[in-house]
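so my prof wants the structure for this chain in the tokens format not the other one, which i didnt know existed until like an hour ago. anyway here's the sequence
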Amino acid sequence: MAAVGSAPPGHPRQAGEDRRRARLTVLVAAAIGGIVLLGSTTQRVAGIGFGLVASPMLMLLLGPLQGVVVANVFGLGTALVAYLGVVRQVEYRRILPIAAAAVVAIVPGALLARSLQGPQLSILAGCLVLVALSISVAARRIRGLDRWPGLVTAGAAGGVMNVLAGVGGPAVTAYAIAARWEHKAFVTSMQAYLVIVCVVSLVMRGELPALTLPEWIVAVAALGVGAVVGAWAARRIDPRAGRIACVTVATLGGVAVIVTGVVQLATA
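here's what i got, hopefully its the right format
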């Protein structure tokens, strides 16, 4: 039986509603695929950056809860693909203490995420994206990060930022710059850190992406295409230009997430 006020099956109005839903599903799937493609390509070009680029846009599209969860799932996929290719080159003695600090900090971060309403979480997550960007830009000017307290602080900050906003990399990048960690060795080791932090963040959040089958298919395909395109682009794109583009996209996304949260809070 058709619901009260709805058109019966086969009715022209019902057929029109079905077509609109189908178009919306296609558009959302395409948007998710495009975001994952951009994030995966950025990660391949720069070694990090999936979360900074993808997380703000996914939060705008899917909301702060699902946006961060989806960012962590596909951030995990991107890092895992890279990690499997460099597993023997990772400097575990340097990266595992940072990951351990992140894991400890993820627990209170996840509890905080569960206690916040959608608009409040949007504002906090957007602010964390901008904080992460500020850290990555000003990393060379931050003193004291190259010592053990700095290592623990960077790891803990990365863990909290990852579980709340999907941006766990910049704080650790700041430590790596301060500690003069050779760039290639750091990027290689960072993949292990990202795998650990994304897995623990997902477990502590206790959620999985509420994506439809078409959205999953498009996103997974975009992840693979991004890895291939990124490998090609890494040999042709100036790293500095890539970083500028990454920071610009992430800044716009972070501001948009904050504005969305403020508007939702004001109209609630």
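also thought this was worth mentioning. Residues 6 and 14 are 8 Å apart (CA to CA).
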